[in-house]
Write a structure and sequence with these properties.
By secondary structure, this protein is α+β, with helices and mostly antiparallel strands. The chain folds into four domains: 224 residues, Heat Shock Protein 90 (2-Layer Sandwich), CATH 3.30.565; 140 residues, Ribosomal Protein S5, domain 2 (2-Layer Sandwich); 80 residues, Rossmann fold; 130 residues, Up-down Bundle (Four Helix Bundle (Hemerythrin (Met), subunit A)). The protein is 39% helix and 21% strand. Strands 5-4-3-6-2-1-7-8 form an eight-stranded mixed β-sheet, with helices on one face. It has a six-stranded mixed β-sheet with strand order 15-14-17-16-19-18. Helix 20 crosses helix 21. Bound molecules: adenosine-5'-diphosphate. The site of adenosine-5'-diphosphate has 16 residues, from helix 2.
Length: 624
């Protein structure tokens, strides 16, 4: 008996104990897998010039044995594939799983992995998978009763394909599992979830028929079993848009992309032109657990005249829209297209352009017409769009800048740059922002207090990439970005500016002295009128901000640590200034301690660690 990988075991436990209320979706999952398997063999048999088979999926309920069998004549699995596909769930996801695990409900957990094959354990206490791979001599049977493990043994199989036998659980209060052996139930489940599967889903169905030869005035009926096709087999993307409702669109999404949640939106893109194609694009409602890792593979399902030629065609999506799922079907592609050819294919490029344009349009439309949904989308995938604006030296920034959202201090919600700029008060020349790890921390920055009091709107940048995006955008509609932590940030009018200049002049020697004390730690010490209750703050004196320093140094392969130039600012309106002045005249030793304590405090307020914790504590104690 082989053991499942640890994380798989956890998911299996969840499945077996059926926390997922919608148990019936197991059928949809198994049928989708069967359909994928047929897609694969159909493609191979076409390019191999093999005879095209009579592809189908068969359902066989057996009341006596209490089994439901789902059989396909698709590509089948080799022993290694059985081991790899059914012995592990999300094998690459161990780390991510552990990280994301905390605080998640079981339903969310399963959703992150996709329900897939394992959902069968919601209804079955034992599962057997008989399978023989295309061009293989041997067949295998995989058997498992859930979390205890699984077994693979060789067996004699005639046909290529896969047969899955589910031994249904005994009925209990929660669920009448035996319903899944009823013809009517299976028929309605197929209609509901798998109608557009492009291969016939067949089952022996009992019909009541007029007995042959019986007199017309005395009709007699008899039960006959006939092999019926339960689905209509029209692919959804071939149907006219007007005939498809949201429910059907969503059902198709869940079945096709193994998601347990409805997408935020599904859209049709049917193009007729130089390259003609039908497609359906979806914006998922949750980012997959590995979305922001390099394990994630973007792409759209690519069909050529109804034959699937690629599960995930990366070329059809730019990285920043990598979260979009969907199908594309075009008759203008060649069937035996290889990845190399694909990359150069003029048709694929044209489709990709069309798709990108459509996604942009739809996102803009959502932003304008359904802000709530867009906010949800942005909270899941906004980071991806921000990276897109920054990547490649900003080559796509103009396409993406209007899709960005940032948190506004004033409105206390996400706003677009356009919204920010449109409401700028007379005379404000800049888009102000402040960066930090979280909204709370940014809100607590010394520089923010006064700005808030003055009613100035500030964008809060909490993602590491935000400030880099601002630098690459440089400005929006002529308004430059300015950080509240830049040396020349000021909310003062001309008179106040003059006043500050005068005060600075008066304290020139003091500031020089403190700079000397902080030798090398800061580039300069200046006075500021940007603070309200805080005595000091730390700002950056160069191109690189303190927040960028943190982000860059936190990168896994940052060997050479970068240092932002720092300026210590002392509040011109705080009593501490007078105190420092007095100390300079009377007690230089204490001035030193005060300067060091103030400097370290400013570091703490900026979210930096102390330069020298022990002397900080020593100095502080002595002052107190
Ligand atoms: P997913 O379908 O989301 O990849 P599943 O857990 O449903 O995840 O299935 C895992 C893998 O097992 C599939 O990707 C496929 O390679 C293989 N598989 C499942 N069912 C079949 C089948 N009927 N025929 C061939 N391969 C299958």
């Amino acid at each position: 008996m082989k053991q499942f990988k640890t994380e798989s075991k956890r998911i299996l436990d969840l499945m077996v104990n059926s926390i997922y209320t919608n148990k019936e979706i197991f059928l949809r999952e198994l049928i989708s897998n069967a359909s994928d398997a047929i897609d694969k063999i159909k493609f191979l048999s076409l390019t191999d010039n093999g005879a095209v088979k009579d592809f189908k999926i068969t359902l066989t309920p057996n009341q006596e044995e209490r089994t439901l069998t789902i059989q396909d004549n698709g590509i089948g699995m080799t022993e290694e594939e059985l081991e790899k596909n059914l012995g592990t769930i999300a094998s690459s996801g161990t780390l991510a799983f552990k990280k994301q695990n905390e605080g998640k409900t079981d339903g969310e957990l399963i959703g992150q992995f996709g329900v897939g094959f394992y959902s069968a354990f919601m209804v079955a206490e034992k599962i057997q998978v008989y399978t023989k791979a295309y061009k293989s001599e041997t067949g295998y049977v995989w058997e498992s009763s859930g979390a205890s493990g699984y077994q693979i043994t060789e067996c004699d199989l005639q046909e290529v394909g896969t047969k899955i036998v589910l031994y249904l659980k005994p009925d209990d209060e929660d669920c009448k599992y035996s319903e899944f052996l009823q013809e009517y139930k299976l028929m309605s489940l197929v209609k509901q979830y798998s109608d557009y599967i492009r291969y016939p889903i067949q089952m022996m169905v009992t019909h009541s028929k007029l007995k042959e030869g019986c007199p017309q005035d005395k009709p007699e009926y008899e039960s006959v079993s006939e092999l019926d096709t339960l689905n209509s087999m029209v692919p959804l993307w071939k149907k006219p848009k007007s005939q498809v409702n949201t429910e059907e669109l969503n059902t198709f999404y869940k079945s096709e992309f193994h998601d347990y949640l409805d997408p935020l939106k599904g859209v049709y893109a049917k193009i007729e032109g130089a390259v003609t194609y039908d497609s359906i694009l979806y914006f998922p409602s949750k980012a997959p657990f590995d979305y922001y890792s390099k394990d994630y593979k973007k792409g759209l399902k690519l069909y050529c005249n109804g034959v699937m030629i690629m599960e995930k065609c990366e070329e059809l999506l730019p990285d920043y829209f990598g979260f979009v799922k969907g199908v594309v079907d075009s008759a203008d592609l060649s069937l035996n297209i290889s990845r190399e050819i694909l990359q150069q294919s003029r048709q694929v490029k044209a489709i990709a352009q069309g798709i990108e344009k459509k996604i942009s349009q739809e996102l803009k439309k959502m932003l304008e017409e359904d802000r709530e949904t867009y906010d949800k989308l942005f909270s899941e995938f906004g980071l991806s769009i921000k990276f897109g604006a920054y990547a490649g030296f900003g080559m796509n920034k103009d396409k993406l800048k209007d899709l960005l959202l940032f948190y506004s201090s004033k409105k206390q919600k996400l706003v677009t740059l356009k919204e920010y700029v449109e409401e700028l008060p007379e005379g404000q020349e800049f888009i102000y922002y402040a960066s930090g790890e979280s909204y709370e921390k940014i809100s607590a920055l010394p520089q923010i207090e006064k700005a808030k009091e003055k009613g100035v709107e500030i964008l809060f940048f909490k993602d590491g990439v935000d400030e880099f995006v601002a630098k690459i955008l440089d400005s929006y509609e002529g308004k430059k970005f300015k950080s509240v932590s830049e040396a020349d940030f000021s909310l003062d009018g001309e008179v106040e500016k003059e006043q500050l200049k005068k005060t600075s002049e008066e304290h020139k020697e003091l500031l020089e002295e403190i700079k000397k004390i902080l030798d090398g730690k800061v580039k300069d010490v200046t006075l500021t009128s940007n603070l309200k209750s805080y005595p000091v703050c730390l700002i950056s004196g160069g191109e690189l901000s303190i927040e960028m320093e943190k982000v860059l140094n936190a990168m896994p392969n940052s060997e050479n640590k970068v240092q932002a130039e720092k300026i210590l600012q002392i509040s011109a309106d705080h009593p501490i200034l007078q105190k420092l002045k007095t100390l300079k005249e009377t007690d230089m030793e204490s001035l030193k301690k005060y300067a060091l304590v103030l400097y370290e405090s400013a570091r703490l307020l900026e979210g930096l660690s102390l330069d020298d914790a022990s002397s900080f504590v020593a100095n502080l104690t002595q002052i107190i």
